[in-house]
Amino acid sequence: MGTQTVTAGRQPWRSAARRIHLWLGLTIGLLFAVISLTGSALVFYVGIDAALHPETQVEHRAPAPGWTSPVWDRALATARAARFDPAGKWSFEVTGSGGAIPARYYPPVSGAVRHPPRLMVWFSADGSRILRVAPWGGYLMSWLYELHMHLLAGDVGAQVVGWSGVIMLVLLLSGLIAWWPRGSWRKALAFRRNAPPIRRLNDIHRLVAVGSGGLLLILVATGVILALPAVKAALLSPATVPEPSANADSGPALPITRALASVRSAVPDARLAFIDVPGDPAMPYRVRIQVPGDPHRRFPGSYVFVDQRSAGIVALHNVRDGGLGTAINAWVRPLHDGSVGGLVGRILAVLIGLAPAALFVTGLLRWQRRRGRLANPAQ
């Protein structure tokens, strides 16, 4: 009698979790699947894009350009000779390998267009030629990125992605509560091959969820933080990147290599990641670097601002000096894209990203079959 009372007392919570899980799955499950599938495609998007555009795959036997290379100034001169608006901003990516040099070009803001679309530009390995120019969002992998991050709807889409991610966390947790075994774990994790189709669907759904649930929670939670800066600020309070003002002094801009020499002197153990060159020489160069302890190689969190006219350090943002919130924030992106685990971690991120689609399909089929059985109990 006592056992029956305890079981009955637990049943309403489990039933409520099942109802929540069911209706959240039916309403937001497809969006969850789309965001996760596009995320899986983006884990290796640089390599996929290069394979789709062989014109950027150039042989280069010389060492990859780094701190002292003249390639950066040569690429900037090539861009300006190609009649890009000199008032626009350039961001050169330091890949650490030979071959084409990817860069982002941000046209100057005009009164008519507040946020003009940026262009992706690939330079030859020596910076003397432009190999490819494409508008961001206008080719497959960048389109998938915009779909994944913003649902092709800009800032509003990012808000939808972020807050729907919060609902996805509830979806995952309600499924865990509804499933949590009350008896044998062995039975709870069994796959019954000879069971009726609806039970096999239930087993597949359950096993996929159990196998991927923990990492899905991490991927969704980090995705929410990436999509919602306000949530990140509230949860982590990371140190903000400074925004230095313009230098009122006059004179021509110094070469990029002079600025990089200053950065290297200020942070000698750093690795070069991005070089941002504003069109206005009164504004400083912004050099993005990876310092020891920062887990993300491609998009590290430290910045050095260097005056274009004097090569003096204007401001420095080092993740090592930002406190606990900044340190935790540095791990959000590498956890989200799997890069924290190297190649194995990225492959695992791809596989985990496939799970929501499998869960949505099996969950939908289960629901349809159950409705059919309720409508036709004689079957």
TrEMBL record:
Q: Which residues form a coiled coil?
A: none
Origin: domain of life: Bacteria
**Which Pfam families does the annotation name?**
PepSY_TM (PF03929)
Any idea which UniProt keywords this protein has? Membrane, Transmembrane, Transmembrane helix
Where does the chain cross the membrane? 20-48, 160-180, 207-228, 343-365
Does the UniProt entry include the keyword NAD?
no
Q: Which InterPro entries match?
A: PepSY-ass_TM
Q: What is this protein called?
A: PepSY domain-containing protein
